[in-house]
TrEMBL record:
Its EC number is 2.1.1.64, 2.1.1.-, 2.1.1.114. S-adenosyl-L-methionine binds at residues 85, 114, 137, 186. InterPro entries: SAM-dependent_MTases_sf, UbiG_MeTrfase. One of its GO terms (cellular component) is extrinsic component of mitochondrial inner membrane. This is Ubiquinone biosynthesis O-methyltransferase, mitochondrial. It is a peripheral membrane protein. It comes from Lasiosphaeris hirsuta. It catalyses: a 3-demethylubiquinol + S-adenosyl-L-methionine = a ubiquinol + S-adenosyl-L-homocysteine + H(+); a 3,4-dihydroxy-5-(all-trans-polyprenyl)benzoate + S-adenosyl-L-methionine = a 4-hydroxy-3-methoxy-5-(all-trans-polyprenyl)benzoate + S-adenosyl-L-homocysteine + H(+); a 3-demethylubiquinone + S-adenosyl-L-methionine = a ubiquinone + S-adenosyl-L-homocysteine. Belongs to the class I-like SAM-binding methyltransferase superfamily. UbiG/COQ3 family. O-methyltransferase required for two non-consecutive steps during ubiquinone biosynthesis. Catalyzes the 2 O-methylation of 3,4-dihydroxy-5-(all-trans-polyprenyl)benzoic acid into 4-hydroxy-3-methoxy-5-(all-trans-polyprenyl)benzoic acid. Also catalyzes the last step of ubiquinone biosynthesis by mediating methylation of 3-demethylubiquinone into ubiquinone. Also able to mediate the methylation of 3-demethylubiquinol into ubiquinol. Its cofactor is Mg(2+). Its main location: mitochondrion.
């Protein structure tokens, strides 16, 4: 990927060197983007008491619900990404093998925030190493699809997989008292309001020694070209209007956010690129320009 960048048109190369002037500070969402605003600014008191839900995002995802489980439908790209999510989580956990799980059997408890139709949640619940998956989403149409799809598999008992219509702010007290080994936010943080506060709240549910795992998109001219222009407008592999480039978050902003907070260590990142016909592939360094996974371990 790096070497191919040398062959990009001069204008694009120049644009990338300048970097987008439209930062998306997490605390203030994107209403007033400003040059050089602190990336991932700490969540303000106002943001931390506000909902992360953006109504137009919810309408957008509800409209896609019907085809969520069609492997060639609106969520095709998410289906193809799913195996990499499991590999990434395994790699993160293997990097600190001494940390125990929250259950006596050694099985893991997951909280999947913004689970959508359940692509990751279902697959995680089927793993023998899983004790339970709590999967939450504020889009009612999407959650209805998730529930009805899971109901087709008798192995996905309520104990294994529970869907809750909630955001991280409205998670019921019963779930709040659980310790989660892994909290996942896959392709979600670029769709929420007040992302810094949202991430912090999600982090509160990770048990000491557990992992907060997310995937998102870097805010660069290349990602605008690939995820907005190519994927949505030209190739149509992602439904039009899915992504607002201004809400993308860079990996160094996430690192700085967590460094500033303390209590988290071992940041891990994996840059991935979607190659039509081949699917998602790991491309070292691509986290700086497009899609990537990011994880941190909560200090034990
Ligand atoms: C691109 S989809 C990703 C779904 C799923 N994580 C996956 O990758 O298969 C984004 C999801 O985030 C959900 N979402 C939007 N705002 C949210 C919020 N404030 N809290 C939790 N989920 C949210 C949407 O309803 C949608 O299902």
């Amino acid at each position: 990927m790096r070497s191919s960048l040398r062959h990009t048109p001069t204008l694009l190369r120049h644009a990338r060197a300048v970097r987008p002037s439209c930062w998306a500070p997490m605390a203030s969402a994107v209403q007033s983007p400003s040059l050089g605003a602190p990336a991932l600014a700490p969540a303000s008191a106002r943001a931390s008491s506000s909902s992360s839900v953006n109504p137009s995002e919810i309408s957008h995802f509800n409209a896609l619900a019907a085809t969520w489980w069609d492997p060639h439908g609106s969520s095709r790209i998410l289906h193809l990404m799913n195996p990499l999510r499991h590999d990434f989580i395994s790699t993160c956990r293997a990097s600190s093998p001494t940390v125990t799980s929250s259950t006596p059997t050694g099985q893991l408890r997951y909280l999947d925030v913004g689970c959508g139709g359940g692509i990751f949640a279902e697959s995680a619940a089927r793993l023998p190493s899983t004790a339970s998956v709590t999967a939450i989403d504020p889009s009612p149409g999407v959650l209805a699809v998730a529930r009805s799809h899971a109901a087709r598999d008798p192995g996905l008992t309520a104990e294994k997989l529970e869907y809750i219509s909630a955001t991280i702010e409205t998670l019921p007290p019963r779930e709040r008292s659980k310790d989660f080994d892994v909290v996942t936010l896959f392709e979600v943080i670029e769709h929420v309001d007040h992302p810094a506060a949202f991430i912090d709240r999600c982090g509160e549910f990770v048990k000491p020694g557990g992992w907060l795992v997310m995937s998102t998109i870097a805010r660069t001219w290349t990602s605008w070209f690939t995820t907005n222009l190519m994927a949505e407008d030209i190739l149509g592999v992602v439904p039009k209007g899915t992504h607002d480039w201004r809400k993308y978050i860079n990996e160094d902003e996430l690192r700085a956010h967590f460094r500033g907070k303390g209590g988290w260590s071992s940041p891990r990142v994996l840059g991935v690129v979607y190659i039509p016909g081949l699917g998602w592939k790991e491309v070292k360094g691509s986290e700086k320009i497009g899609n990537y996974f990011f994880a941190l371990q909560r200090d034990a």
